Amino acid sequence: MWQPLTEPSVEDVHRVLTEVDVALWSSGASRTSGNCSRADRSGAVHHAEGRLIAVAGSVPDEECVMGIVAAHPGRSELLSDAVPLLEDVLRAGGALWLPTLDHDAGAAAAAAHGLVRAYTDLQMRTRTTAASASPPPLGTRLRELGAAPSDLHDVHDLVCAAWGAEDHWTAFHRRFEQAAREPALWVLLESEQGELVAACFGDGQDLADGRFKVVRHLDVAPGVRRSGLGRWALNELLVRFALAGWDEAQLGVHGDNASGAPAFYRSHGWSVVSSQDKWVRAPPSPAPGSRARRRGTGRTT
């Protein structure tokens, strides 16, 4: 039976999270493991024959809290029992991840508790190549990422424009300050007038099956999309990964991305190695005569 988390082993919790999906960010899994192991965090574990086989817990995710329910392969029936343990997360407007090798079981567990799919996260990988880099596209030039805060501010503004949504500067800086310490892994293209028009950057991540270079963002200014800038910036970053000694790269993207990003990546040799669904409490039906508010879909790359 499910028992409250009191003194679990962080290593055991991390093992459960990564066993169900080797492509999960190990940094995120470790963060979850650490939070689940603290007595002031809601969480529970399920043991069988003296072995931890399932975990339910919450982890801060930027400005919100995410719930994660994971079960050892072959025990996905435990997912449905665990969802109510994180009802406080759902009640507060948070979402649940149910990483599992059995996606039908995850969907059934979510549906049984009135949850609806918010989106599907795809993790994709490709081989890198140290092919000779081509010159920047006509009318653009490379910009080096410097130490000045204004450089990151320009990237932040480009990301907001590309997503069509505001990304709070403090949160953006916190996410990418560490990555900015490797300026060689930031491919920035600017126009001849000095305006930043494309950005593609990455860093290293520990995953359950190894350490990978990860493409964290690929963004192109709305006015110059479909002109080859994104393709060039991505290829340039992969060349830099290869020259640094990394032969594989990974990225994450929403499966229903409005810009068609998954198809773009597939056409350039990327393949899906993992997919997980994010579940939320179904919103109340709009009052008669009211119009539902439309929400855009942003990229996670």
Description:
The protein is an alpha+beta fold and 301 residues long. The protein folds into two domains: 2-113, Gcn5-related N-acetyltransferase (GNAT) (Aminopeptidase, 3-Layer(aba) Sandwich); 126-274, 3-Layer(aba) Sandwich (Aminopeptidase), CATH 3.40.630.30. It has helices at 10-19, 26-36, 78-82, 87-91, 103-112, 149-163, 169-176, 229-243, 261-267; strands at 2-4, 43-48, 51-61, 64-71, 95-97, 115-127, 140-143, 186-191, 196-207, 210-220, 248-254, 271-281. The two termini are 39 Å apart.
- Find the CATH superfamily of the largest domain: Gcn5-related N-acetyltransferase (GNAT)
Major sheet attributes = 12 strands, mixed
- Give the overall form: elongated
Distance between the termini: 39 Å
- What's the helix count? 9
> How many E strands?
12
Strand order across the largest sheet: 1-2-3-4-5-12-6-11-10-9-8-7
Number of domain modules: 2
- Share in helix: 25-40%
CATH topology of the largest domain: Aminopeptidase
Provide the CATH architecture of the largest domain.
3-Layer(aba) Sandwich
Share of residues in strands: 25-35%
Radius of gyration: 21 Å
Mean pLDDT figure: 79
Q: How do the helices and strands follow one another from N- to C-terminus?
A: EHHEEEHHEHEEHHEEEHEHE
